[in-house]
Amino acid sequence: MPVNIVYNFSKQKQKLHVHEGLLQSRILFLLHQIERPDSTVSVVFMDDPAMTAYNQQYRSKLGPTNVLSFPATEIPDELGDILISVETAQKEAREKGISLHQRLTELLIHGLLHLIGYDHEISDEQAEIMFSREKELYCSIQHHHARRKKMPQLAINVDHIATIRQARGGAEPDPVHAAGICELAGAKGIVVHLREDRRHIQDRDVHLLRQTVKTRLNLEMANVKEIVEIAQDINPDMITLVPEKRKELTTEGGLDVISNAKKLRKTISKMSKAGIPVSIFIDPDADQIEASLEVGATYVELHTGRYCDAENEKERDQEFLLIEEAAELAFEKGLRVNAGHGLDYRTTTRIAAIPFIEELSIGHAVIARAAFVGLDQAVREMQDCIDRAGRI
Question: Which of 160, 332, 341, 359 is catalytic?
């Protein structure tokens, strides 16, 4: 492999989360940009104590630095080693108001240029040349959409199959049957929302789905005693806590974790004891992400509704950036990231390209499309929208 990535963290620093696939793709891109695509480079991500030891041994300086480079002088096609303190990079990112992975990318560029002969310490002129090249390479990465090697999984929400059934009060169409079709068509998860008012999904559905779903059953639910007890009883593969209002047509926004922290922490503790991972449906907001971590959530599901409902491209771009930044921040905090709400055949691909998102929860658009082409075809077409993210 042209890129070797190694980690040197103490056990106490294991929460320094690095997205290896994303950074590896960026290094490969940079190797092409510097016209060394066949060369090998090794990158060691470490904490401050490890970097302090290297800095003292090789530069006779106390304390950590952000990046060190060690060129390989005798091995053909081996550029050398880049050592980066993720702990220092995290502090610098916070000071600069950028994400950790943006700062790591800057340091990778800096280290790589040192490996091929650039040196800002020789003179002011050389420093300016190196700075200019760093800027060029960073801009090129900003415009380069690295293909995801692993696309997010598709989870289908079958609530609206139940909505059609409940409209006539009969037994069909059956969301349990629909879930099976979705799985056979390639869906990697089934989502249902058991609401307090039972407007669509019924208790019977949830119990049967627990017995029949072969992939993963995600139970969306309000944080209320009755539904919490049902979740404990059926033991779904995961739950997603969402806000719920009786008069709303669908979930209107993310859960306010900050205002409901005490109750959420209590429920998450119960689920943890039962071995049920908990996701919280939130708006793409830094404070809500931090609060989700503090109450013990395993996942956050980022609300994509405002992105999907944007009235013009400028507004949509702004909402997309909020989701993109929130996904990266949540990942860096140690949370797993899903996304959903309002996604359709036009808006899904762009969200699927965000490398920190593991799963997309999509329902209404697929069920609506199924009315014209059938459920199997509708699911396959949505999966194609996700796969397309790897080709843009």
Answer: 341
Annotated catalytic residue, options 220, 244, 301, 332: 220
Active site residue 220: yes
pTM of the model: 0.77
> Residue 80 in 3-state DSSP?
strand
- What CATH number did the domain enclosing 52 receive? 3.40.390.30
Q: What's the domain count of the chain?
A: 2
Residue 78's domain comprises: 3-142
Q: How far apart are CA 237 and CA 215, in angstroms?
A: 9
Q: Is 341 a catalytic residue?
A: yes
Given a contact cutoff of 8 angstroms between Cβ atoms, the answer to whether 326 and 287 are in contact is no
Is residue 322 within 8 Å of 284, Cβ to Cβ? yes
Per annotation, catalytic residue among 193, 200, 301, 303: 193
Q: Which residue shows structure tokens 């669509």?
A: 200
End-to-end CA distance of the chain: 24
**Is 136 considered catalytic here?**
no
Model confidence pLDDT, tens digit, residues 58-83: 999 999 999 999 998 777 789 999 99
Give the integer Cα–Cα distance in Å for 349 and 343: 9
Residue 364's Cα: distance from chain center in Å? 22
Cα angle value 110/114/118 (rounded, 5°): 105
